[in-house]
Amino acid sequence: MDKKALLNELKIDRGDNQVDSARPIKWLLAIAILGGLGFVGWYVDFPLQPAAALEVRTILAQTPTRTSSENSVLDATGYVIARRMATVSSKVTGKVMDVLIEEGMVVEEGQILARLDDSINRAQLALAESQVASANAAIAELEVQIRQAELNLTRSRDLAVRNLVSQADLDSDRLSVEALVARLNKFRRDIEVAERTTAIQQQFLEDMLIRAPFAGVVIAKAAQPGEMISPVAAGGGFTATGICTIVDMESLEVEVDVNEAYINRVYSSQPATITLNAYPDDPYAAEVIAIIPAANRNQATVRVRIGFLERDERVLPEMGVKVSFMEAGVANEPAIEVPVGVLIPESAIASEDGSLFVWVVQGQQVSRRAVEVSDKIGSRVLIVAGLRNGERVVSNLNEELLLSLADGLPVNILN
To answer: CA–CA separation, 185 vs 411, rounded Å?
Structure first.
């Protein structure tokens, strides 16, 4: 072959390669443009999206208490107890079909808490009602027989007057009537027995519905559908002895053990203050209900019952408390003047340009509100204007949290 032709075959044609190499660059430019447009769209739309709820901690604004521990003659520790607390169970052993309560639920007196299997009780009630119906039908038949016997007796008497019937026949007809009347009275007694049996079966059926003995709050749920329940322990570990535990929150009080060497400082109706260990800055006004007339020889203490004069939802059973007994005669002295306003922690107050304000939580949103401060009591501040008792404010304010808060901002309360 010609050498020139061979060299031409080895020559590289760059025309097609330039076109192919330009295509990736064009695709990269298109992708970059689309990505930029998407970022701009996202940046523009992002501020319009609803803001996530800010997590905050809050505290209730409360009026100052009426007493002060400065006059305390004795301090003691104890626990909040409920005078009315019951573990609700059934009267008989049975299988749980439905449980209608959960922990924390408020129940009313007589409210149905659970249902047991009542299939056998319904069958027994139906049988008792059938016996009543059968006895009534027998009485109706017997009344017809009595009317027939009375007619026979009447005819026999008429015939006996004319000496057409012997005295023996007359006596037989009279005794037949008396026998039927006696049977009628027996059947009526049988109906009474059947009706009372029916009433008992109705009560057995009613006992399959477990009801609340009093109004309160459910603090423990002990049974589930399908379990066996019994008023006494039975069946090893497979039988529960209760449905739930109910506490009457209106019966909460405090019990403390006072050293018998200092019991002379305590008397009935003595004023006192109760401070929960969980809320040491919020004491409650109280008074002594009773001193139990018996001492514990092992601990050398006497038990004292103290009742709340004021209480809120923060007081829970089994909470630890500190009780301060006031000095003798405080109950007869003029009442201590209660400062006007509400108390909140100092950490819940912020300032800007010399003015003080708080963030008030209403529903699930916060709003800024100006307040006036009068005095500092312990670790709390007395607010005399701008805040009412029972309102909830954001606590533990810091610089980062203050920058995040705004009027109408949705919040999620942590406590």
So the answer is: 78
